[in-house]
Each structure stands twice: as C-alpha cells, then as structure tokens.
Write a structure and sequence with these properties.
The complex is a heterodimer of chains A (157) and B (716). By secondary structure, chain A is an alpha+beta fold. Helices cover 36% and strands 16% of the residues of chain A. Chain A contains 5 helices and 5 strands. Chain A has helices at 24-31, 82-93, 103-116, 122-129, 139-152; strands at residues 3-9, 12-18, 50-53, 56-59, 72-74. In chain A, strands 2-1-5-3-4 form a 5-stranded mixed beta sheet, with helices on both faces. The N and C termini of chain A lie far apart (53 Å). The relative contact order of chain A is 0.16. Chain B has 3 domains: 9-210, Aldehyde Oxidoreductase, domain 4 (2-Layer Sandwich); 217-288 and 346-423, Aldehyde oxidase/xanthine dehydrogenase, molybdopterin binding domain (Aldehyde Oxidoreductase, domain 4, 2-Layer Sandwich), CATH 3.30.365; 294-337 and 434-703, Aldehyde Oxidoreductase, domain 4. In chain B, helix 13 (481-484) links the parallel strand 20 (453-462) and strand 21 (496-502). In chain B, helix 2 (70-82) packs parallel to helix 3 (117-144). The longest helix of chain B is centred in the first third of the chain and has 28 residues, at 117-144. Chain B starts with 8 loop residues before the first helix and ends in a 13-residue tail after the last helix. The chains are: A alpha+beta (157), B alpha+beta (716). At the A-B interface, helix 1, helix 2, helix 3, helix 4 and helix 5 of A face helix 5, helix 7 and helix 17 of B.
C-alpha cells in the first residue's frame, strides 16, 4: 500500500507518495522528474542509475524508497562542488561522451571515487568504475578524465 | 513541443512558446522566415542552413545522433564553407522528410546506418554552407556597392578586402533572404580546408550529456501520460491464446491492460506499477511447433556446410585446386546470436490527437518509422510528426524495418486514448530477438609447394537479414549481400576462390548489428588466413603483404598498425600479438591486439593499435572515439557476447549473463588515421570487425590454441 516518504534530494526535502518497495530510481524519475538518473538494467548491473547516498555511489534501482530514511541523495545535477566542477570540465575537455546515456552514472561514481581517493591509481579507477557499463566504450577517456580532474584538484600525479 | 535543439535549452523553451526570431524551429520549412513585421527574420538558405538576424547559424542534422558524432561532424562540413566557428553553430534534428532529408546513398528515405552519415552528406552539406556564404557575399556587394570579387567570408562576417569594412552575417540576413540561392556554389579545394581534418573541434553534444539536460525518449513527460510495458511471446513465434487481466489491474497504478499485435500491454501511471502489473499478468501462449535450440541449429547447419551453397563468388577452379593442392587445410568457425544492448533500452513516446500522431524517440529510420506509425495509427504519413531525440546507443537495433517499438507505442496509445511512453526493460531487450545472426563458416584451403594458398573455399550458413523484409528485393541470385559482405570481397590474391552461402530460415528475428556481415566474416576469414599462414610456415604479416600487393589501402593500414605496434619486437612468454585487416563500409581498418594470458588461462587484453583509412578525416577526434568504441564493442562480443536459444527461447536476460566489457577490461587503444584526399567514408562500424580476429590470432600466438568459436570466454 502507498505511504508518504520524505527524501532529501540535492539538498531539498521532497515528500513522495509511493509503495514502500518502489525503487528510488522510479521515485526520482517518475515522481520528481529527475532525468539525469537513467534506467539501464533494473538489476544493479550497469550503473546508469547511480546516485550518491551520503557520498557513496549506489544503484538507485536497487534501493527501495522505504529504506532511504534521512540519508542525503545527490544526483548528477546536484553535484556542484569543486570535485564535480573539475570532473565535468575534464569530461568536456576530453570529449568523453558518445551516446551519453551512461555518463551521468559514470560522473556520479567518479565523484564518489575522488572524494574518497584524491589521487586514484589506475587500479583504484578500475575498482570504483567497473560497476558502470558503457556500451559506446568511452572507458579510456573516462579514465583519462578522472586522472585529469585529480591533477587539477591537486591530487594527481 | 517540436524538435529539440542541442545547444541551448533556454532557446528551446522560448521556441516552444512560439517566439524567438532567428531561433525559429521552422527554419527549414520556408525560404525566408517572417518575424511578423515584414522584415525577413532569418536567411533560410536551404534545408540545412539558417542564419538569424543575430548572426546565429543553425544547422539541421538529418541523421540520428546515437553517439557516433553526427551532431558534431556534420555541422563542420557547413562551417568549413560558411566560414564560421563550429562551436557557435546551433544544431537541430530534422523532421521526417524523405525528399529534403533523404539519405543520398539509399533514398528516397531518411535514415541513418551503414556508416553513411558523413559520406552521403559530404557534398550536400558543404554545398549548403557554400550557398549560404555566396548569398551573404552577394548581399554585402549590394549593400556596400562593391564588386563581389573584392569580398571574402571570414569568421562570421563578409569583409571588403580593399577597405577592410566588415559586415557581420546577422546584418546581411535581411538582404540575403531576398536572393535566390545559387544552385552550384563553388566549393573549397581540399588544400584550403581549415576545419575539416583538423584537431580541436569539440563535440557539440558533450555539455548536454554531462549536465543531465540531454533528452532521450524516457525523459519525455506529458500530462496523463501512461507508461506501458508489453508482455511479449517468451518463445519466438508464440501467439496469445488467452489472458487474465484481473491480477494486473489490481496492482495500484495500473490503468489499462490491452492486447496489441506483439503481446499484452500493461499501462500504468508509473513505471514501477507497470512492471508489477506485467509480472502479475497471466497469459496462455500457443507455442509454435518449431522451437529451435542453438545445439540443434548447429547440428543442422553443420550438415549444410557439407553441401554446395549459392555462389557469392567463384574465381578460377577452387574444387580442382583443392583436389590437387600439396597440403589441404579445413576449419569450421562459429559465431552466436548477439543482442545490441544499447545502454538506453528501446522506448517511444506517442501522443495521438484527431488527425495527428506525434512521436518522440531516437528514430533511426525516420521516414520508414513515420510510414509504419501512420499505418498503425490509421493516418497518412504526413499526419505523423517524428521528433528525433538523442539515442542512447543503437548499434543497429533502432534501424528496424518492422519499426517494432514505434508501432507498439502507437498501438497502445490508440487503445488507451492518452499519451503513452512505451518502454522495453533490459530483459525485454536481451530476450527480444532482432539479433545479429548466428553463423557457421566452413573453410577449405589448399597450399602449394611454397606454402602459399592456391585455393580457398568458404561456405557460410546463417539467416538472411533482408529476407522477408522491405529490402528483400536486394537479395540477388539467392545471395543476401549482407550475409557475405567481408567474405565474398575477400581482398587476398588467391587464384582459385569460391564463396558460397546457405540461408536457412528460423523463427528467431535477426537484424543488422554494428558492422553487420563484417562482424562475423572478418573474424572467420582473418583467423583462417592466420591458419593458412601458420600451415605454410609464414608470418601472418608477411603472408598478408604478399596477398595484398594489389590492395594499397588494405596494405597501408596494415603496415601502419604493424609498425606502430612493433610487430617485429618479440614479446615475453605469456603474451601474444595478433593482427587483422578488414574493409567495411568503404573504410579500411587494421588492428594489432596484444594480450597477456594468466596462469589459469585468463585473458587480459593489454593494448590495441588501430590504423584507419576512412578517406578525408572530417573530425579526427570523433574518428578516434569511434575506433575506441568499436574496439570495446567488438571485444565485448568476442570475449563474452552470446545469446543461446533453447526450445525457442533466448537463455540470457540481463548484463549478468550477457556480459559486456567493463572499465577494468578496457585495453589501451591507440588510433592512427591515414592521411587521405579521398572522399570520407564510414567510421561508426569499421572499428568493430578486426578486433575479434586480431584477439584470437593473439591468443594463438600466446598459447598455440586456435579459437574457432566465439565468444572466447573468461579464459582459454
């Protein structure tokens, strides 16, 4: 049965009316109109729906709305700090996107990575980013863009 | 709402409000737009180029942007002749129009595919830019009362060379709009290009795609819109006998359960409700008698390999040469069905109103989709408005002669009488057919005393993509050319050469998949040629050099890739290097793959060196990106990609059992572009074919093991 849930998304509180098992993905998309969060697989396998939950990259398709509680949700459009600014600039500078559909999730995971490890190695990138699929094969540029942003942020090699 | 421009979301909103001179979305509709006061508001030089009184240039892109970079490369063709900064150009996607936005290589039809976007636009868009430039020069000559020979176009202005007087394009629009566009404007010689072929042109869609504003079909929302999922036949060819809608209708949010031609649809006020509603549906299906399995298909097709097929190429006397060859070699190669699995699952938004059907989707066959939608809606094609959005990948899936997902959406919208967003789940996508066909390749070769191939017989067995569809007339003498492309035109000089085809029919729907026939013929031919080289005691590169002596473009990419990869430098044990060269869509690509093999046979692809000759490289960085992407796509398939059929059903369902390459599996890719003055050819697909054979040839070099069946799997 439907219930009311209070969510903090991109710093704003939203009240939503949903069945408790509704995945956060569909609440964000269908009820809050947040297009940057993408549906790709519904099984936590592709990372297109990645959002930050208290700073960690999680799969919104695997999180029932009833289990979010007071944790802060940040989507791509809510990422506005220095890390995000440098990541987005590096993405543009290296022309990372092709079809673009996975890139929001990629940037969310990259954001979580740089917050945790300011100077990531290639293997740190492999671990943090291997949950985000890209069928266009932009991985090499994503890797380079993360290194570039890290460098600009003062952490890079 | 109308077409979405790429560059300026705010102007998009302004335009939808029906104002915005110079940003008018009807630019392509009229020769000169009117702002209401009688002064022309813009110069609509032709179907592709419009210039506003503010000087802003809008380029209409007739092709689908699915990641391959048309929204960047096509405006460059205009900018080169129009003398403007490509970064300042606004891009719009064209409405469906087979006449104005015809794909010049197919026509009359608007569509994207076969790596034709740049090639068919090459002259058209340079002419479009040049025509606008000539009109602006003529307008400036009139205004300045000078000879037009003294005027040049430069950086968005017309400059009078004698006085240095400069008129920005915007100030010339009103005068130029009254002129007749020239039919044959002069085009720059290649030597004068300052944008085409240069680095530094940035992707025009990058910003939209990193700030979340890029619109895909699922992002469209309308009041009272329902989200619809279809329960389709679990077995290919099954039909609905009966269904019970009660449990589905009991799910809160489900508003309708309706039968359409492809199955039973659940339409709900949220995606989650639609998913739960569909899960609750009870459907009884009548399964067809013929329910194939991969194993039975393989058995039947192996028998066909022993029989003469339809001739696709026959030179010399292959049978006689095989009988008298000093050494004989044979092998069977196999590739599985493959799903396209674009990141954005198929979806389509439809809004019907009396006498009108509006569609929003990443349409790849706009005018065909328009006709199919019209048929489903009971309207004429002119009553169907196609709004082409960004596509989150396609790899051929959206170029479907059945327009399957578009027709489904129209059928549902008709049944529920409210706007509909039809969505395929990932499971629907992986299990839904329209696969790259499974193929068997049987080879026989004979070597002469010097170890050179004297005869080559190649028999292919696999379903025809063209058969039974609107392009069936392209099947000539029993040969669907897309089944044998890359095999029938084998470039190697072998005197006795025969290529034959069997095209058995099965109820599993098949479709073009990035690089189409070449996605499997390159694998089979380039691996078997390596076997021939090995049997004849020759280096794979050395043998290809001899056999490609008359094929300069193949040879040039091969030499470049081999040199850049350091082909002659030995690798340590546990590593291997393989190469392959292939022509597809009139472009030539060679790749050298380097791998490491772990103690338990785990394959790690370390590096791929790629050389490409695609004629004039319009936007080199987009070409590099397409090669990088083609290699990743090809490696996904070569290493992991496989749809198996059991009792008429696809056995895989999502990315856990239909594995795709991930970040940690991506090799280092180096792309080298050959300089060329030939007209540009395709790059969206040609990066794919060589990677599977180069990989498998590398595995042989490292392990001595021949891979004749894809996918390779996690280890060898």
């Amino acid at each position: 049965m439907r219930s009311m849930f209070s969510l903090i998304v991109n710093g704003e509180r939203h009240k939503v009316d949903a069945t408790p098992d509704t995945p956060l993905l569909w609440v964000l998309r269908d009820q809050l109109g947040m297009n940057a969060v993408k549906y790709g697989c519904g099984q936590g396998l592709c990372g297109a729906c990645s959002v930050l939950l208290d700073g960690e990259s999680v799969r919104a398709c695997q999180l029932p709305v009833s289990e979010i509680g007071g944790r802060r949700i940040v989507t791509l459009t809510g990422m506005t700090d220095t890390i995000a600014t440098h990541l987005k600039a590096a993405w543009i500078e290296l022309d990372v996107p092709q079809c673009g559909y996975c890139q929001s999730g990629q940037l969310v995971s990259a954001q979580a990575l740089l917050r945790r490890i300011p100077k990531p190695s290639d293997s740190d990138i492999d671990i943090a980013m291997s949950g985000n699929l890209c069928r266009c094969g932009t991985y090499q540029r994503i890797r380079a863009a993360i290194h570039l942003a890290a460098k600009r942020l003062g952490g890079g090699p | 709402m109308k077409r979405a421009g790429l560059m300026d979301r705010r102007s998009f909103l302004v335009v939808t409000a029906g104002t915005g001179a110079g940003l008018c979305l009807a630019v392509a509709e009229a020769k000169a737009g009117q702002s209401g006061g009688g002064e022309p508001a813009e110069l609509a030089a032709n179907a592709f180029v419009a210039i506003g009184v503010d000087g802003r240039v809008t380029v209409t892109v007739k092709h689908l942007e699915m990641g391959q970079g048309v929204a960047t490369g096509l405006p460059v063709l205009v900018a080169e002749e129009l003398e403007v900064d490509p970064a300042s150009i606004r891009v719009e996607f064209a409405p469906a129009d087979a006449k104005r936005y015809n794909n010049l290589f197919w026509g009359p039809s608007q569509g994207t595919g076969g790596s034709t976007a740049t090639a068919n636009s090459w002259e058209q868009l340079r002419k479009a830019g040049a025509a606008a430039r000539e009109m602006l020069i003529e307008a400036a000559a009139q205004l300045l009362r000078v000879d037009r020979g003294a005027l040049i176009a430069m950086n968005g202005s017309i400059v009078h060379m004698g006085s240095g007087r400069t008129l920005p394009y915007g100030e010339l629009v009103a005068t130029a709009a009254l002129l007749t566009p020239p039919a044959s404007p002069p085009l720059k010689p290649v030597s004068d290009f300052r944008l085409i072929g240069r680095n530094g042109v940035k992707r025009k869609d990058a910003r939209d795609k990193i700030d979340g504003s890029a619109r895909y079909g699922l992002d469209m929302r309308f009041p009272y819109m329902l989200t619809a999922l279809v329960a389709r036949a679990p077995v290919f060819g099954a039909k609905v006998v009966s269904y019970d809608r009660r449990a589905a209708l009991a799910v809160p949010g489900v508003e309708a359960v309706v039968a359409i031609s492809s199955g039973i649809t659940v339409a709900a006020n949220s995606t989650w409700a639609a998913m739960k509603g569909r899960d609750a549906l009870k459907i009884q299906w009548a399964e067809p008698a013929l329910r194939p399995s991969t194993d039975t298909i393989r058995g039947e097709w192996t028998a066909l390999l022993g029989r003469t097929g339809m001739p696709a190429r026959d030179e010399g006397d292959a049978e006689a040469a095989l009988a008298r060859g000093a050494r004989r070699l044979s092998a069977v190669y196999e590739v599985p069905y493959l799903a396209h699995a674009p990141m954005e699952p198929l979806n389509c938004v439809v809004r019907l109103s009396p006498g009108k059907c509006e569609i929003w989707a990443g349409c790849q066959f706009q005018t065909h989709d328009q006709a199919m939608a019209a048929k489903a809606a009971g309207l004429s094609p002119e009553q169907v408005e196609i709004n082409t959005l960004y596509a989150g990948g396609s790899f051929g899936r959206r170029a479907n002669p059945a327009s399957d997902y578009i027709v489904e959406a129209v059928e549902v919208a008709k049944a529920v009488n409210t706007p509909v967003r039809l969505m395929w789940t990932r499971e629907d996508d992986i299990r839904g057919g329209y696969y790259r066909p499974m193929f068997l390749h049987g080879f026989e070769a004979a070597l002469d005393e010097q170890g050179m191939p004297a005869a080559w017989r190649h028999r292919l067995v696999g379903q025809s993509i063209l058969e039974g569809g609107p392009f069936a007339a392209m099947i000539k003498n029993g040969i669907d050319f897309v089944s044998v492309e890359g095999a029938a035109n084998l470039p190697y000089a072998i005197a006795n050469l025969k290529v034959e085809l069997h095209s058995p029919k099965l109820p599993v729907p098949v479709l073009w998949w990035r690089s189409v026939g070449s996605s499997h013929t390159a694998f089979a031919t380039e691996c078997f040629l390596d076997e021939v080289a090995q049997a004849g005691g020759k280096d794979p590169l050395a043998l290809r050099r001899i056999l490609l002596a008359g094929q300069p473009r193949h040879l040039a990419v091969l030499e470049l890739a081999a040199a850049k990869a350091g082909w002659d430098n030995p690798l340590p044990p546990g590593k291997g290097r393989g190469l392959a060269v292939h022509e597809s869509f009139h472009s030539f690509v060679a790749q050298v793959v380097e791998i490491s093999v772990g103690a338990k046979g785990e394959i790690k692809v370390d590096r791929v060196v790629c050389a490409v000759d695609c004629g004039i490289a319009v936007t080199p960085d987009v070409i590099r990106a397409q090669m990088e992407g083609g290699i990743a796509f090809g490696l996904s398939a070569a290493l992991f990609g496989e749809i198996t059929i059991r009792d008429g059903r696809a056995e895989q369902s999502n990315f856990h059992d239909y594995r795709c390459l991930r970040m940690d599996e991506m090799p280092k890719v180096e792309v080298h572009i050959l300089p060329s003055e030939a007209p540009p050819t395709g790059v969206g697909e040609p990066g794919v074919p060589p990677v599977a054979p180069a990989l498998c040839n590398a595995i042989f070099a490292a392990t001595g093991k021949r891979i004749r069946k894809l996918p390779v799997g996690e280890r060898v």
